[in-house]
Amino acid sequence: MNDTGKTIAYHTLGCKLNFAETSTIARNLEKEGYNKVKFDEAADIYLINTCSVTENADKETRTIVKRALRNSPDAKIVVVGCYAQLKPEEIASIEGVDLVVGTNDKFNLSKYFEQLPEEKVHGEKAVFFSCDISEVNFFKSSYSLGERTRAFLKVQDGCDYSCTYCTIPMARGKSRSDSTANVVIQAKELEKAGVKEIVLTGVNIGDFGINAADNSRNENFFELIQALDAETDIDRFRISSIEPNLLKDEMIDFVSKSKNFMPHFHIPLQSGSDEVLKNMKRRYQRDTYVSRVEKIKAVMPHACIGVDVIVGFPGETDELFNETVDFLLSLDVSYLHVFTYSERANTEAAVMTDKVPVRVRQERNKILRQLSEKKRSHFYARHIGETRNVLFESDEHNGMLEGFSDNYIKVKVPYHSSLINNIFSVKLISPEDDYVLGEIISADKVSTTNTELSNHF
Question: Is residue 171 situated within a structural domain?
Fold first, then answer.
């Protein structure tokens, strides 16, 4: 391996998919002689992998650029990711940015680094390289490694849906996937690296199976999770966000019987109003969502279910928002991820009438965040007194070590180094602010299936 003598630091904004890709970019550049350092250290290059799901993500990019330049005023600032693809000229005009690279070339950065001048030229507009997103027809395998106990494994990219609020298809292109065989290979690599838990990620993972080159479909998501369960020895898999219309009964039944796929689902709802869902061009209505939650709880009463919700979408009256609140109150779900709607350029929703005032959007966000806290507390309280298997992570906080149970309860116990990256049976003792205090029972992983565990309820 050549050593360029240059140091590079990384910062990731946004989703699990971005973390997987940043980690892969870093490993690739390390092979090409770029030495990774922490973002708060001095570096020759700072690479920022951006998100553009919300307006705040755009603003945060500017903040991160300023932070990097405080560390090293003469460093080269490189911006990639969704924001870089959507608004390359806007990013290029940010003071201090030197290079902006879109979706097509973010995994081939060294050739662009070589084109940059040796010395930073202050006050000049950055060079940017974007692409026609419709021409992106490849899939790049990616996974995170080294940052934490769990790894994020990218299995799918892009989206063919046309939700009226979303910029992701414009930033990442059409739906396309890895092959089942290659995902299994990637999982085995992570297994060899000591990873105990893999989170399967993508833009629309339920749509897994589309070949990037010719748009043919030869595989599906159910086949993928069956193969991972049968052909790898990873202790834990989690399924990241999956659309309710793509989460099938066969998948839920499979998870309920699996020792390796955790009883944890994250299912975007976005609104509890059928009228708003229609205006969003979501591919389901409330009854579909209810059926998914009821099916999960029928076979896994202990399962954790997370929900994405958007507040303040155009036309969301007080009455329609209250429909969402009442709907969420009626659902046996465990926590919410609440997003405040913001207008995104070139989306259908951006030109819709009946805008909800920003102040009202913020108030609705607060209401649902409070509801989320109540849902989570209720979910945690239901499991006090049980023994569940917990995978402990590496960070110590005030003499305590935390980890997550199979059904995604945050658990803390007194710190001991032998716990790190190991699975222990833990008795859940008492609920605290945002976690449960636990007591170690044994180092033996719970050996029952999810269905058998449900029999204890």
Answer: yes
Rg, the chain, Cα only:
22
Q: Distance of alpha carbon 319 from its chain centroid, rounded?
A: 31
How many folded domains does the chain comprise? 3
Query: Six-digit token pair at 30?
Result: 């390390």
Which tokens is 191 given?
Answer: 């297994």
Domain boundary residue, one of 262, 283, 317: 262
Has residue 452 got a pLDDT over 50? no
Q: Between 326 and 15, where is the model more confident? A: 326
Please determine, for residue 70, whether its predicted confidence score (pLDDT) is greater than 50.
Answer: yes
Q: Which domain holds residue 425?
A: 387-454
- The average confidence (pLDDT) of the chain is 90
**CATH number of 167's domain:** 3.30.750.210
Region 109-125 average pLDDT: 79
For CA atoms 71, 74, 75, 80, give the dihedral sign: positive
CA distance 266 to 6: 40
Query: pLDDT, tens digit, for every residue of 391-447?
Result: 998 878 889 999 999 999 999 999 988 899 999 999 999 999 899 999 998 754 443
**pLDDT at 123 (0 to 100):** 65
Are 84 and 163 contained in the same domain? no
- Residue finishing a domain among 235, 262, 289: 262
Alpha helices by DSSP H, listed for 193-273, are 221-231, 249-257
Q: And the tokens for 417?
A: 């180094």
CATH of residue 39: 3.40.50.720
Strand residues in 5-161 grouped as ranges (E): 6-12, 34-37, 45-50, 76-81, 97-101, 127-129, 142-143, 150-154, 156-157
Provide the 10 A C-beta neighbour count for residue 74: 10
The two counts, helices (H) then strands (E), for the chain are 14, 20
Cβ atoms of residues 49 and 11 within 8 Å: yes
CA–CA dist 129, 170 (Å, integer): 16
Rounded to 5 degrees, φ, ψ at 444 are: -85, 125
pLDDT tens readout for residues 236-284: 999 999 999 999 999 999 999 998 999 999 999 999 999 999 999 999 9
> Is 118 a residue whose pLDDT tops 70?
yes
Do the beta carbons of residue 410 and residue 404 sit within 8 Å? yes
